[in-house]
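Blinded run. Sample ID left blank on purpose so nobody reads anything into the name before looking at the predicted structure. Input follows.
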Amino acid sequence: MKKLSALILFTGITLCTFAQNDEVKVDYTYVENGVEINATNQSSTPKIINLKLTVLDNYSTFDDNPTTKTVMPNNTSSICKLTIINKDRRADFNYRYQYVSGTSDVRYNPQMVYLLPVREGKSTRIGSGTSIGSYLKKDLEDKAMGYVFEAEPNDTIYATRKGVVYDIVDGNEDYSIEFYKREQNRLSIYHKDGTISQYFRIKKGSALVKNGDEVEAGQPLALAAGKMGGKANFLISFYYFDERKARLQKKPFELTRYLPKFATAESQPTELAFNQTYTSTHPVDIVTLEMTKKEKKKYLEKKGIKK
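Blinded prediction complete.
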């Protein structure tokens, strides 16, 4: 039997991306007795915005400093309001902000069932995805930042559940070793309950979706990159941004990772065991679980399935 370590993928990828671009714009408006700071989210996923007032001269605010708010896609929301203290004296303010895709209103359900990310009928061996920061932990379960799925080079990677695609990185060269590399091709999927699935080690140029696409459970996403030894191990990390944990640790953003249950041909929905092999199955009730009535009807008609 292969050693588990052969399937462990070490990664130091930072899951929070704070680069500021045109997805989010923060500006302010002078209003009666003060200033209102607003954020506009022009992307296809909710954004958690953390704004810190760095200068507050002759202004007061009832908002926390820093303050964190979620702005929904294609929406503008008030982030912070300032009230002038003395109208006869000069007043000044300044701020900085950062953001991530996600929501403060997470509705994580540990009973949610995911699909294995390989084609139906194919078997995959499971390893543990481990971050550099957690590598020294003794307990393998504590180390895990996700599941590693063993596949063949150029195998199709499938969506584990319905969601919206964002943050595609598809221009880095493929690499053939398991050790740490900062830049990896990847894509992320935001789910309606506020959780996120992030797929690492996709083959360069193989993305079959684009940012903003809504994908269904079991839909092809990309191809698996090959590695030395003929196999292609790819990682999926499952997490959500935990506002309570961030407040306790006094950080702008903080992750909570989880390992979901999967539908397999071997058993009822189950948490995957490291170093074990499972066979992919796409039960209709799981594939259509998050579809609207219209989407489900269309899917069943396409498959020739009667209600």
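Unblinding after everyone has recorded impressions. Residues 1-20, 132-142 have pLDDT under 50 and may be disordered.
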